Amino acid sequence: MLLRVESLHAGYGATPVLREVSLEARAGEAIAVIGPNGAGKTTLLKSIAGMLRATRGRVHYEDRSLVGLRAFQVARLGLVYVPAERELFPTMTVLENLELGAYTRIATARKNLEYVLALFPRLAERARQLAGTLSGGEQQMLAIGRALMSGPKVLMLDEPSTGLAPKAVAELYRNLSRLKRAGLTIVVTEQQVPLALSLTDRAYVLEQGTIRLSGRSAELLGDPGIKRAYLGVA
Amino acid sequence: MTAILFDGVVQGLQLSLLAVGITLIYGLGGVLNLAHGQFAVVGGVAAALFLQFGLDPISSGFGGILSAGILGLVVDRTLLLPAYRYRGEERLLLGLILTLGFSFLVDGYLNWQVPEFSLSFRLPVPMVEIGGIPMRTASLAASAIALAVFAGLFAFLKLTLTGKSIRSIIENEAGAELCGIDPSRTRTLIIFLAAMMAGVAGVTQGLSSSLGTEMGPEFTILGLLVAVVGGVRSINGTLAAGILLGVVNAFASHYVGAYVAYIILLSFAMATILVRPTGLLARFT
């Protein structure tokens, strides 16, 4: 198992958000975490990525514990997080943003840059432009491109479709499925449930801080409860 | 007239060196360093001591600059550690108090150990005429050094990966961490560099006129004003603001006296905050 979360508890200050959350992802697998707003999806990813300290529970990655590591240490291990806010460097160029993504892997930076620019030709066109001037879809490409620059093993995406036009969302998911086919392990949270379920192999339904349901994504797509709650069909 | 202008530019460049350090430490560390002028004074005093020990002026100058840098390292790794445990406003306030206390400590120590001290390299320097204006070569050298340091800083921040990582942290610390960049190590590096730049200002002050142990608070205040007018996240803005305020200060000191000059400079800073809160040039590098 590449990534294993066991009985994780986390929250902000005295407010608990996650209770007893467990999930796992094998190498090359794509998993989705779906659930309503405020269920704790972002909190879950932030605790795995080291941006938030879990109050209890364990996170294992490649047979080592991530508990207590800081975000930059987790990123260096090849588990890279793309938050919903994208956290780009707006007054630096697209190319500089990408270069910084390879900060800890300078040796393979050139090779990875070619890979990223081939995956997102739009970023190559805008290489000298400031990141802050990009459209929402392009910024999301840049955030994912920056994450890929270190040649990660796991890509964690928080609500990647947020704020994107429908066309950009479709393009984003085409690219994500290409990355999955290339063997990358993906963990994605999403409001647009059908998209996430069609990309991933398995999915977890997170409600009020606990995992209510999990299973194969294809089966969850057909589940009447899921359909009612998340797909807007009776 | 032109002599005052020239003096103002020379002094302004030194203020820029101080201000850019204040700006970088604030942008990266979230601490407003009120002991920054003392870094400059310590650099100058150390250079003078090296000179007394018989070192040549150039090695003494470099020794002084390095001493200021090492003091910066020590401050970052010891004094500021409690402040770094907090974020945002708490860190800023705790940092203010810690560095203010440290500035008193340095001032008191220097006053006790080397009272009535002043550093002046007193090099046998000739005057040169440029465009019909007589200028002291020592002042020209001080300005050239300051400009060279700025050029080096620009190149470092623009062209090297380490420099880009520094800019990335100033722009978005969370984003930098997601790239695997360790903010605390980078912060230590920048305080070392900023303290060395303050050291350059202290040493060049000794080159162009003379440096006294009591000048720390003045350096800090002027540096802060320049940093505010230049924009606390803008480096070329800081350079421009330093020259501008240096010239304003020189004319005001000459015509209306030093205290009124301070009030004029403060008014400048206030007007900048009201009209252009992000600084004169309002963008980073």
Please provide a written account of the structure.
The complex is a heterodimer of chains A (234) and B (285). Chain A is α/β, with parallel strands linked by helices and 234 residues long. Chain A folds into two domains: 1-78 and 155-234, 3-Layer(aba) Sandwich (Rossmann fold), CATH 3.40.50; 85-152, no CATH class. Chain A is 38% helix and 26% strand. Chain A has helices at residues 41-49, 71-76, 94-101, 109-119, 121-125, 136-148, 166-181, 193-199, 217-222, 224-230, and strands spanning 3-12, 15-25, 30-34, 56-61, 64-65, 79-82, 154-158, 185-190, 202-207, 210-216. Chain A has a six-stranded mixed β-sheet with strand order 6-7-8-3-9-10, sandwiched between helices. A four-stranded antiparallel β-sheet of chain A has the order 2-1-4-5, with helices on one face. In chain A, helix 3 runs parallel beside helix 6 (136-148). Chain A is globular. Chain A starts with a strand and ends with a helix. Chain B is mainly α and 285 residues long. Chain B has a domain at 10-122 and 133-214. Chain B has twelve helices and four strands; from the N terminus they run H-H-H-H-H-E-E-E-H-H-H-H-E-H-H-H. In chain B, the strands form two sheets. In chain B, strands 1-4 form a two-stranded antiparallel ribbon. In chain B, a hairpin with a 2-residue loop joins strand 2 and strand 3 (133-136). In chain B, helix 1 (2-29) packs across helix 10 (216-230), helix 1 (2-29) crosses helix 11 (235-255) and helix 7 crosses helix 9 (183-208). The interface between A and B is medium-sized, with 28 and 19 residues.
